[in-house]
Specification:
This protein is α+β, with helices and mostly antiparallel strands. Helix content is about 50%, strand content about 25%. It has 2 helices and 3 strands, in the order H-E-E-E-H. The chain has a 3-stranded antiparallel beta sheet, covered by helices on one side. The radius of gyration is 12 Å and the shape is globular.
Length: about 70
């Protein structure tokens, strides 16, 4: 049952990144995402340990995009 939560979280991360115009560049122990327009990168865990991970990724996206469009 725990693995189901991790898989679901992975799908949520992929959906969030796609929605914000990021594409997957590399997938080893972590997932490395690159923005399609300005090229900024964000690294996420392949298997996030808690639900707060998604909130942290959202925050990282907001901070990165704020720096570009400021």
């Amino acid at each position: 049952a725990i693995n189901d939560g991790v898989k679901k979280m992975g799908k949520e991360i992929k959906k969030l990144m796609k929605k914000n115009n990021y594409q997957l560049v590399r997938s080893n122990k972590h997932l490395v995402w690159k923005h399609k327009v300005f090229g900024g990168t964000i690294t996420t865990s392949k298997t996030p340990s808690c639900k707060l991970a998604l909130k942290e990724i959202e925050k990282n996206i907001r901070h990165q995009l704020a720096g570009v469009y400021a």
